[in-house]
Structure formats: C-alpha cells, structure tokens
C-alpha cells in the first residue's frame, strides 16, 4: 500500500560508536530500546488482562501454552518454523526477481546475493535473532520508525490514505446531522474499544489476530521533529476540533458525564456552519504545515507554537479525540458523471491541501451534501484497522441511530449547551510565509495526482469462485495482464498482506510478479497459444500466488526480513551492495485489497445498496501505478487507481480500462473451457 513508497525512499544516518566484529554496540542499543518498549507494553497488557480478563484465553489455557513451549525447547523444534533461519539455506529473493531480469542481469544478481549470504549476512542475522528473543516483534517498531516517522517528505499523498462512504446511499443531505450521527457512532466505538468489548477478528475464523494497532486509533497525533517524528497517544479526550472555512472550533463531546447525543452534536455543528466570522491572519491555510515537508513544520512548531495562544490552540488540535472537517464542497459517486469517483478520491486524499490536519490519526470529512470520508495518517496503523471502525460507524449511523423524516438526528435538542469555542491564533508574517511555502509544495503534489475510480460490475466474487480460483489471485493476475498491455513490460509488484497473526504484526509484501504469472501473461498475448494452454498457465500462476500470500501471512515472506537486515547493516556501518540494491528497487505497481464485512453488521444481500466504496492511496513510483481494490458482495469490484500526470508513461483512466478488459479476457477462458 502507501508503505511501498516509503520502503524505497527512507534514509537515515547512524554513526557507530565502535564496531565489534561479533556484536555491534549500536545495534545492541537499538535492540535494547526495542525490548524496553516491548516489555513496557507487556506490563500494561498484563495489568489490563488481570483487571478485565484475557480474551480469548482462559487460565486453563495457560498451562497448554507453557507445555507447548517447553516441548518445542526439549525437542529442539523452532516454533517460528524456520522464519529466522531461512537465510542459511536459501534466498527466495532471487526467485522473485527472476522474471524481471535477463540472463546476464540475473547471473550478476545471483553472484551478489550469494556473496551476501556468505558474508556479512550471518553477522546481521545474529543481531536479528537476538532481537527476536528480546522484543515483542522483530520488525514492527523499526518499520514504524524508519518507514514512517523518519521520513522527511510530505505525508499527504505519499503516506496517508483515504476511505470512502457508502457507494450508493446518502442517509441524509443535512451536513450537520450526518456529522452528528457519525461522530456519536465513533464515540460509541471508542468506548467499546477502551472497555475491551470488541471481539478480536480471527483468521479463517480460528486464529485470533493481534489487536494492538487499534489502541492508537483515537486521541493520537503524529508530532513533527527535525530528524524524526513521534506518535503521541493520550488517554480519553473529551473534545474534538472542527475546521470550517478556514476557522478552527473546539467542541466538547461530553455533557453531564455522558456523550453528547447525535441531536446535540448536530446543534453544535450547525452553529459552526452558521458562524459568519472570518479566519484570522494565517489561520486559513495553517493545516498545510502538516501537508508539506516535515522539517519546516517541525521548526515552525518550535518557534511559533510553544507559548501563548498559539500553543494553547495547537495543543487543542493535537490532544483532540480526532479532527473533523466540515467541507464546503459536495462529493460522492454520480452514475451520470464518470469522473465523480476520481474527484471524490482526490478530495479525500488531499483536499485543498489546507483543510485536513494530516498529522491526526484520522480526519473525518463531512461534505455539504452529507457524504463523508476519512483521511488516515499511516504510521500508527494499516487500512484494515480504520476499516473496522468505519464499518461499525456506517452500520450504526444508518441502521441504529437513523434520521427523522426531515433528515435531522433523532432526539431532543438541548439548546443550553455552550457554543463551540473559536481557537485563537497570533501568526506572524514570517510564519505565514512558511505556511504558504508548505501549501505550494503540497499543491504541487496534489495537482500531479491522476486518479481514477473504476466500478467493475460485469461480475464479481460469485463468478470467480465458480471458477475455483481465489478472487485475490484472479484480480492480481488481471493486474499483471493489464500492466503488461499498458506498458509492454513487467515490473516489481507489491501486494500488501497482513501479519497480524503475530503479536504487533503489521504487513508483509507479496511479490505478485512471478515466473508463473509472466508465463500466463505472455500466453495471453501470444495468438498461437490455445485457450486450454492459457487456462492451465492461469491456474498454475493462481496457485503460486495463493501460496505466496499464505507464506506472507504466516511470517515466511522476504521483504520485512530484508528490511531489518538492512537496518542492522546501516547501524553497524557495513555497506552491503546486495541490500542497497534490494531496498532501492521501485515498486512500479503497488496494490492492496481493502477488506470488507469484517464485522458483518450489514446484510448486503438484503440491503444491496448499503455497500462501501473502499479506499485508496497515492501513487508510489513517479512512473508507476497504485491500485487499491475492494471486492463488494458477489457482483462488484471497485478499483482505486492512482498515478502521476507528470509521467508520460502512465494514465490512470487508461489503466482502468486495461484492468476491465483483462478481467473479461480471463473470464472468457473459463467460459470457453465450459463450452468444450
């Protein structure tokens, strides 16, 4: 997903304080700090577990776990199934790049890789193994720090991602009312989250997945720094900050010890919409500081926002439960306008570059026609996490809270509530110049985003399953075929897979461009190949993809392992030509599937119009495509395609048409086979 952009762009500098040939002190320092953080989290979890009970475990299950661990130690069985020691026997990386290299290039890469395998890989591996024993997760803390928080480029478009509203339905066209219901539903979700009342998701309905990422969904902000940012997470916050037409308002979420009712929230938001006051000097584009480069923002924050009213107002934003924008535009899907989803996506991804606070864990956007969406900062969590909350909110909004016949929130109106408070600013000219500079940088990035939303409704998951094929593998092979037709070549392809079956796991990469997939694509373009041969190659490629996805989910992927080896090499000050080349390879096709029906709160068979539109992310490579897709029910697949206008090689609309045709061409193979 968006992390693919950061994965080839991150840079950092470490000066080793002496290098031991056996164990580097600098690496040990990094490992120690990772472990300290992990053990602090474990202590907190243990305390909470004692107080609230441990789900899904029970005291009787602890003995089973102890026996299992002791058994593996006695029998010398590796419970990681060889994940950490893979490098000793093979380099699956070579297999992943074989279809992209000619014989000479591959031979050269093979030599470099085998040299790395002999030395210095064992040195790096020793440190990683030590970290795997000491820290909760040997990848995730470094992934968050080096891929996200140390990045100095703008996070708008490059890192943040978006999620759309229901595709076909707008439950009310009253902006304040929609905001009232949705904010109240979010507060309900937060309360369930804090009380531990949300049932953990289970892989295949059996294995519970780690819920760590949910902990920082609310009350969280990314704080800019000169060299690195950090994530500030606070306990229960009782207010949110609203942005409307260049003004900031603080809105209290509690009254008399309870959440405000939807009708009360609607009243507060309507008061903001009715406020005719003008922005203060520098206030209109102030959020663009979070959209531009990180260092100017960090310096401006230290110089202009650490005292007086500026400090108080910024603190109100950064400590808010989340950020809300009451947008003055109207967006959403319009079947009469083929570009409506494109404009909707661009608005959610970057807006006007100054009307979302891109550092907040998420910004809720409510448009003047009642449509909504979310822009999410990526460092704290991945898209399935915000998607889980979003499913709850949409279902609660439409099927539990509801609206009156006039489109207002249900319930009485308490007019005695104190009105929302305007945040005050004293922004000098010098700071206003920095704000304008950040805005111009962000505007340049936003204007270069070429987006296309493609609704594929010729068939969906239902028909694909009749072909006895994984829907994800089917779509990934269609993307390979579409890309080859679009550019006439294959490219390194990134598909995001979750690793939440491991504690604090985040993602792993599935390298979707394989020898099997390229053989299938070439067969599709070769007129001398029969449909029976093409179908056989398709099934072989699909099986390969499914197996790679399973390996990635179960910790047997290669990219996070290589990433951590690279971190160790940098900290030790040992240059590795192999790792440098691996980590600099661009992902010209970055893909991700948006999960749906994680909670199953809406029966889409009974209410087919109440389906989500999914979400997406910005282009990853200057000359590549970003593709997010959501499989909606049995008969719809939505694609969100991004690229850059500045690249003469890409065109998001054209690529969408290529995807559509590739999907139809693959289906035709099965149709022809069935007729014979």
UniProtKB/TrEMBL annotation:
The active site is at residue 378. GO terms for cellular component: mitochondrial outer membrane. It holds the Pfam family Carn_acyltransf. Residues 91-661 form the Choline/carnitine acyltransferase domain. It is a multi-pass membrane protein. It catalyses: (R)-carnitine + hexadecanoyl-CoA = O-hexadecanoyl-(R)-carnitine + CoA. The keyword Acyltransferase applies. InterPro entries: Carn_acyl_trans (IPR000542), CAT-like_dom_sf (IPR023213), Cho/carn_acyl_trans (IPR039551), Cho/carn_acyl_trans_2 (IPR042231), CPT_N (IPR032476). Keywords: Acyltransferase, Fatty acid metabolism, Lipid metabolism, Membrane, Mitochondrion, Mitochondrion outer membrane, Transferase, Transmembrane, Transmembrane helix, Transport. Its EC number is 2.3.1.21. It is an enzyme of class 2 (transferase). It is found in: Mitochondrion outer membrane. One of its GO terms (biological process) is long-chain fatty acid transport. It comes from the Eukaryota. The keyword Isomerase does not apply. The chain crosses the membrane at residues 60-77. GO terms for molecular function: carnitine O-palmitoyltransferase activity. Belongs to the carnitine/choline acetyltransferase family. This is Carnitine O-palmitoyltransferase 1, muscle isoform. It comes from Cyprinus carpio.
């Amino acid at each position: 997903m968006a992390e693919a952009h950061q994965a080839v762009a991150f840079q950092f500098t470490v000066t080793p304080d002496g290098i031991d040939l056996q164990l580097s002190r600098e690496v040990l320092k990094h490992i120690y700090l990772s472990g300290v953080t992990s053990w602090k989290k474990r202590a907190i979890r243990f305390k909470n577990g004692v107080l609230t009970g441990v789900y899904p475990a029970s005291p009787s299950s602890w003995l089973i776990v102890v026996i299992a661990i002791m058994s593996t130690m006695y029998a010398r069985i590796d419970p990681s199934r060889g994940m950490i020691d893979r490098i000793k026997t093979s380099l699956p990386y070579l297999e992943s790049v074989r279809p992209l290299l000619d014989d000479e290039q591959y031979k050269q890469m093979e030599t470099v890789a085998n040299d790395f395998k002999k030395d210095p890989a064992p040195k790096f591996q020793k440190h990683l193994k030590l970290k795997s024993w000491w820290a909760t997760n040997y990848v995730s803390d470094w992934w968050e720090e080096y891929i996200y928080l140390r990045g100095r480029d703008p996070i708008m478009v490059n890192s943040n991602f978006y999620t759309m509203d229901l595709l076909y339905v707008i439950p009310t066209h009253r902006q304040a009312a929609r905001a009232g219901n949705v904010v109240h539903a979010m507060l309900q979700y937060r309360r369930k989250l804090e009380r531990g009342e949300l049932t953990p998701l289970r892989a295949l309905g059996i294995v519970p997945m780690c819920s760590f990422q949910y902990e920082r969904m609310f009350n969280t902000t990314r704080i800019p720094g000169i060299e690195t940012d950090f994530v500030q997470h606070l306990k229960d916050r009782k207010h949110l900050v609203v942005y409307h037409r260049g003004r900031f308002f603080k809105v209290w979420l509690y009254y008399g010890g309870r959440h405000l009712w939807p009708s009360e929230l609607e009243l507060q938001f309507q008061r903001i919409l009715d406020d005719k006051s003008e922005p203060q000097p520098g206030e209109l584009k102030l959020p663009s500081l979070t959209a531009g480069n990180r260092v100017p923002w960090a310096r401006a924050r230290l110089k202009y926002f650490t005292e007086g009213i500026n400090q108080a107002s910024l603190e109100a934003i950064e400590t808010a439960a989340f950020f809300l924008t009451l947008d003055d535009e109207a967006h959403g899907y319009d079947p009469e306008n083929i570009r409506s989803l494109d404009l909707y996506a661009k608005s959610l991804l970057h807006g006007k570059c100054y009307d979302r606070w891109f550092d907040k864990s998420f910004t809720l956007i409510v448009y003047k026609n009642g449509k909504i969406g979310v822009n999410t900062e990526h460092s704290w969590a991945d898209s399935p996490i915000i998607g889980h909350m979003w499913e709850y909110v949409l279902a609660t909004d439409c099927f539990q809270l509801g609206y009156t016949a006039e489109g207002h929130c249900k319930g009485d109106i308490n007019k005695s509530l104190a009105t929302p408070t305007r945040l005050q600013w004293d922004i000098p000219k010098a700071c206003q110049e920095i704000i304008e500079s950040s805005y111009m940088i962000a505007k340049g990035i936003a204007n270069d985003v070429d987006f296309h939303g493609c609704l594929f409704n010729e068939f969906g998951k239902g028909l694909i399953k009749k072909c006895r094929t994984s829907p994800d593998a089917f779509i990934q092979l269609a993307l390979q075929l579409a890309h080859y037709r679009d550019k006439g070549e294959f490219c390194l392809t990134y598909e995001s897979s979750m690793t939440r079956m491991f504690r604090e796991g985040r993602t792993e990469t599935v390298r979707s461009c394989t020898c099997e997939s390229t053989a299938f694509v070439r067969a599709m373009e070769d007129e001398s190949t029969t449909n029976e041969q093409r179908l056989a190659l398709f099934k072989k490629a699909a099986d390969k993809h499914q197996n790679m996805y399973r390996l990635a989910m179960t910790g047997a992927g290669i990219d996070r392992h290589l990433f951590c080896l690279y971190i160790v090499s940098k900290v030790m000050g040992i240059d590795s030509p192999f790792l440098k080349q691996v980590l600099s390879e661009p992902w010209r096709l970055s893909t991700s599937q948006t999960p749906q029906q994680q909670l199953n709160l809406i029966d889409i068979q009974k209410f087919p119009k109440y389906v989500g539109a999914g979400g997406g992310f910005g282009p990853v490579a200057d000359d590549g495509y970003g593709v997010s897709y959501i499989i909606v029910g049995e008969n719809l697949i939505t694609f969100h395609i991004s690229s850059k206008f500045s690249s003469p090689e890409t065109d998001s609309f054209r690529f969408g048409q290529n995807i559509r045709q590739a999907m139809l061409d693959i289906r035709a193979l099965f149709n022809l086979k069935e007729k014979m």
